Fold this sequence. Notes:
By secondary structure, chain A is an all-beta fold. Helices cover 0% and strands 47% of the residues of chain A.
Amino acid sequence: EAGVVQSPRYKIIEKKQPVAFWCNPISGHNTLYWYLQNLGQGPELLIRYENEEAVDDSQLPKDRFSAERLKGVDSTLKIQPAELGDSAVYLCASSPGPAVAKNIQYFGAGTRLSVL
Amino acid sequence: GENVEQHPSTLSVQEGDSAVIKCTYSDSASNYFPWYKQELGKGPQLIIDIRSNVGEKKDQRIAVTLNKTAKHFSLHITETQPEDSAVYFCAASLPSNDMRFGAGTRLTVKP
């Protein structure tokens, strides 16, 4: 079974440019998470989806970040415009959902963003 | 919200020795405590987890203990091998699926 797939793996952009990340969760997983991981730190939640609904986006900087999960499967995370401080690894994770195997989260390999 | 603290930040052991990483959490409602291993350039990989109704869980060379009263949990790796070298993260999750991670421990196993 394929794991969580993220693309691109690496992205280098200049500040003020837009950027988008894509995530394909494990088939059948209803819950999808986007995390930010700064160097030397643990993942920090940006947004959590239950199917198509964003149920926790309290940590998402909404002035420049946006996310969507159309049809409750794939998801995209966008930054517009990017700032130097956005350089980090963006991780996507999925879990079967609270009714099945509860909170177990499976992570993708991440997208490493460098803003110049 | 939940706050997770992890110690030590770095740990170096000789091959064959044991390694112990400790975490504390703040919200007594947390009921799920996973441990992840992250190798360079990869995403975190779940290695073991424990739920609040269990005090200890073991899987071959790794074990996790949970003390709900003190709100702390630990990862134990015995007979360490060079391939155990990685960054390890603990996490604590509320029933709502709100999961918070520790800052990580960089484990180095010297051959």
